Amino acid sequence: MNYRGPYRVRADKNAPMPEILHPQDAIVRVLRSCICGSDLHLYHGLVPDTRVGSTFGHEFIGEVVEVGAGIENLKVGDRVMVPFNIACGKCAFCRQELYGNCHESNPEATAVGGIFGYSHTAGGYAGGQAEYVRVPYADVGPVVIPDWMDPDDAVLLTDVVPTGYQAAEMAGIQPGDTVVVFGAGPIGIMAAKCSWLFGAARVIIIDHVDYRLEFAERYAQCEAVNFRSIGDPVVFIKTVTDSLGADVCIDAVGCEAAGNTMNSLLGRYLMLQGGSTTALHWAINSVKKGGIVSIVGVYGPTNSLVPIGNVLNKGITIRANQASVKRLLPKLIQHVKDGVINPKELITHRVPLEEVGDAYHLFSSKLDDCIKTVLIPPSASI
């Protein structure tokens, strides 16, 4: 996959084979990769320093075909799921299992660790929407896929499931809580699903795309509401919570939120702030006093307009982070094995990697009731 500029990606059949550049590297032959909602921020030209010629893709699984001299935990032939975070495993933050905040893997910035295929602001690493990919710090991130696990489940454990799960975890959900999730994309749907695991008594998901709301209602057994049918979402939430507000609100939308003209103009079209903050406004204003707002939607590094006065006056706790995939994988693998979570049900489209341009158009334009798209490289054998 090769990025040629906003709204233009194409298959590149002459891409060079990645090489071992460090003793801690491995080369992985990709078996499945996904297009993530946050890949669309790159595709739409909203992420700074996204360079022409880049290969996207931070959700992938594959087979190890070569390892560096310093690799001890992997061998050629292992089939692995590769967390989207690139983590050294040794810095102060990795030692706290904050793998998304690694202080060593991103030479381009200090605010975020390295991420596969996510612009030079996240380290400039090539991504997994390819046949082969170089995996740095390969003794740290990759986890061998259990023999019993479906590869379609495995690939969704590299981002969607842990990010949705961590959204619910960060929200500090208590038994009996009312949880509101803004955004019915794959992450929001998974956050709604996982909210039940923490004891939520009521889960409401809000979006404006009807087919996604119908999917979320069925998959996550939650209430699904189209914000275009309810007027002000904040007033709606207050109305259905005895005027108190939700115990927890989760922003699973991020920088491309619709629903407010000013925010869309400033954040998406003029790019005067780090994205449209509409969902974040709604979350802050809908949560109860003393409640928690959990943010997993992606925003740019520049300043953004948020109602910080309301955060103070309501005593709100805001928690946000990139998912720490490596930390969560043991628990989530067990949830898949026990049938608690069925990630592959999110997959609606499987597209050959050679048709990556069509796949991006399909996902970006929300055509054919698309929820999640998986790319299959021509050399994939499972």
Q: What percent of the residues sit in helical stretches (DSSP H or I)?
A: 25-40%
β-strand percent reads 15-25%
What characteristic shape results from the CA principal axes? globular
Mean pLDDT: 95
Oligomer: single chain
Poorly predicted regions: none
Put simply, the count of helices is 11
Query: How far from one another are the termini?
Result: 20 Å
Classification by helices and strands: alpha/beta
Largest sheet: 7 strands, mixed
Q: Can you walk through the features of this model?
A:
This protein has helices at 37-43, 151-156, 160-170, 186-195, 210-219, 233-239, 261-269, 278-286, 308-314, 325-337, 356-364, and strands at residues 2-5, 8-10, 26-35, 60-67, 79-82, 85-86, 114-115, 132-135, 143-144, 178-182, 202-207, 223-226, 246-251, 287-295, 317-320, 349-352, 373-376. It is of the alpha/beta class and 382 residues long. The strands form four sheets. Strands 3, 4, 5, 8, 9, 16 and 17 form a seven-stranded mixed β-sheet that branches. Helix 3 crosses helix 4 and helix 3 (160-170) crosses helix 10.
Highlighted features:
about 25% helix, 6-stranded parallel sheet, 17 strands, alpha/beta, 11 helices, about 375 residues
